[in-house]
Write a structure and sequence with these properties.
This protein has 332 residues and is α/β, with parallel strands linked by helices. Helix content is 34%, strand content 25%. It folds into 2 domains: 6-127 and 283-295, Rossmann fold (3-Layer(aba) Sandwich), CATH 3.40.50; 131-277 and 313-331, Dihydrodipicolinate Reductase, domain 2 (2-Layer Sandwich). Helix 4 packs parallel to helix 5 and helix 7 packs across helix 9 (306-323).
Length: 332
């Protein structure tokens, strides 16, 4: 039976699980009811920190729990498909962190599980949900840019530690800059320009066998070009710049956490800067949107559709194929 507030569970107790728990405090339609870890001690500590009623020492226990409507998957990319499918097969709605999975084969299995179980499923591409992105979609639809000709977008940061076993650099955990960071510019390009007709890419592969930075260009049927970049070797501008025949839009740093943008006409006359600071830590927007879909009985988000998530993952597959970057999950 549906409740008026979504009863959330989280799988995984790492960095992003904490951010999402905080985000939920700022929603009007969600409350955090359960946490699961591979380790009972971690689950209990997390439950105490966030005042959660149910703490499970196994992911399966949360998936089976009657105290949960929807599950946020906060594990490394390599576990997203398995954890999501476990929850959906137990009739839970699933919001799964980005990247949705490691490859499109896994995404197809996730979509199939959502259809078979008739449950809501969405990729947690949180950048799509802040209020500024609604404004950006409004500006794009208004035609004030004219014909869009180019997009520049990048996401690079320098991790504090270079742990070869950690999820960022570990091949076994589907590490690398493309899946972790490149997904943001790819997703933005998909939202603005749709499906590319061709692509050119260049990676820098590191000693652990994953891409530590990469640049790629997408071309679109309309002739527009997107120049995209991801890096685990340095902090980049972290901005997006959309140029059209009538003007351009700059999404200021950090464009993956969008709160400020500027429109400039091509002749430079009219400037309009909009700032929409987060209320909450930003994760509340995707959680609120997902919660509304759940309470309305919807099975998919119009803002981050399953077909688009699949298309984006196919693009990442194609890029990795060019680099011969093969993860263990690609062999299954
Ligand atoms: N939206 C965003 O802005 C954003 C930012 C950062 C990360 N993310 C995404 O969130 C996911 C998790 O990232 P994170 O930074 O939170 O990672 P993290 O701090 O390493 O936490 C991941 C958690 O997953 C669980 N886990 C399950 N299998 C694991 C394994 N083999 N190795 C390590 N941990 C494992 C662990 O929880 P237990 O030990 O409790 O089971 C761990 O605490 C990634 O897919 C990443 O892309 C999103």
């Amino acid at each position: 039976m549906k409740t008026q507030a979504v009863r959330w569970g989280i799988i995984g107790t790492g960095r992003i699980a904490r951010a999402f728990a905080e985000g939920l405090w700022h929603t009007s339609n969600g409350r955090l009811c359960a946490i699961a870890s591979r380790n009972e001690g971690s689950a209990k500590a997390f439950a105490e920190e966030w005042d959660i009623n149910h703490a499970f020492g196994q992911y399966e226990e949360l998936a089976h729990s009657d105290a949960v409507d929807a599950v946020y998957i906060a594990t490394p990319h390599s576990s997203h498909a398995e954890n999501s499918i476990l929850c959906m097969n137990n009739q839970k709605a699933v919001l799964c962190e980005k990247p949705f999975a490691v490859n499109s084969m896994e995404v197809k299995r996730m979509i199939q599980a959502s259809k078979e179980n008739n449950v809501l499923l969405m990729e947690g591409m949180w950048s799509r949900f802040p209020p500024l992105m609604n404004k950006l979609r409004e500006w794009l639809e208004s035609g004030k840019l004219g014909d869009i000709r180019t997009l520049h977008a990048d996401f690079g940061f320098l991790p504090k530690q270079r742990d070869p076993l950690g999820r960022l650099f570990n091949l076994e955990l589907a590490g690398g800059s493309l899946l972790d960071l490149g997904i943001y510019p790819v997703s933005l390009a998909s939202m603005i320009l749709g499906k590319p007709s061709s692509m050119q890419t260049l990676p820098n592969m590191g000693p652990t066998g994953v891409d530590e930075q990469a640049a790629w260009i997408f071309r679109y049927p309309c002739g527009a070009l997107a120049m995209l970049l991801s890096s685990l070797q340095c902090e980049t501008r972290q901005e997006a710049f959309i140029s059209g025949s009538l003007g351009n839009i700059r999404i200021h740093k950090q464009c993956w956490k969008p709160q400020k943008m500027t429109f400039t006409e091509t002749n430079g006359v009219a400037n309009e800067t909009i700032e929409m600071p987060f209320k909450g830590n930003g994760f509340n927007y995707e959680a609120e949107s997902f919660g509304n879909l759940f309470l309305e009985g919807k099975k998919e988000s119009p803002i981050m559709s399953l077909s688009e998530s699949l298309e984006i993952m196919s693009q990442l597959d194609q890029i990795r194929k060019e680099w011969n970057l093969i993860y263990p999950m690609d062999r299954q």
